[in-house]
Amino acid sequence: MGAVPVLEPHAGALHGWFDRDLPPALTVDPGTTVRFRTLDSGWFLEPAPGDGTAARRRAAGHTPDAGHALTGPVEVRGARAGQVLAVRVDDVVPSSWGTTYAGLRDTAWSARLGITAPAVHRWTVDVAAGTARNHLGHTVALRPFLGVIGMPPAEPGRHSTVPPRWHGGNLDCRELVAGSTLYLPIPVDGALLSVGDAHAAQGDGEVSGTAIECGTERADLTLDVRDDLFGRPLATPVASTPAGWVCLGLGDDLDEAAAEAMDAVLDLLGALHGVPRSDALALASVVVDLRVTQVANQVFGVHAVLPPGAVR
Question: Does any domain span residue 264?
């Protein structure tokens, strides 16, 4: 097997938006493993000093209209719009520091929770120990994943990295850890995958709007192409994860997002067990968990989890 191609976050492979006309930084054959290195979502090159309010250096290329710092795009040779991109997450190793912010965005949400002053938590990440420790002395377990795994919309022009979309992007689903495979509908020929916004740890919902925002020393992803998933077209992100099958729904509110996640999980149960939708719904009511993915990014997310072996 040849050497794994490495994509560094530098000029030509670092951007803050999705755009189908961005030239690929790398072109690979289906089945290739690519090692990405990523900056933290805010383009920072160093941890927050002191109380976290002092200025920090940002990577060149950061502009006021740029969103998350993304590494890519990677073109997958032969991929066509309408097919499915399979992104197998082989490894995600976070950088040695991270930052969490609270009360700095979504002022209506903060006010409702009685947040009157912002907070910035500075984290030291110990990969060997599997923990992160903040400046207040609190320690949490690491569960690293990439918050953004996505492709550009088919429409021309620059598109924000903030809202998640049916073809991926800022999904912020904490289940997409190493050992997962994320299946995404391909919107453009070549796929043009970009990734970033690594989180060393995050709770369901990402309720402050941020997790432990960090870069990655490496994120190893194996990229493949399929015509469909279980013989059916794919309309929303679906993943096979250590927690089980995960179907992601997106919407303008949690009701809409939950309905989209349920629509996908009923299709999944039908494909796996050969049952009609009414029976799939009855089974889902017994074994499927609905979880709030995120409330932070303009579009609400809900994911439906079908645990391994839940239906035999």
Answer: yes
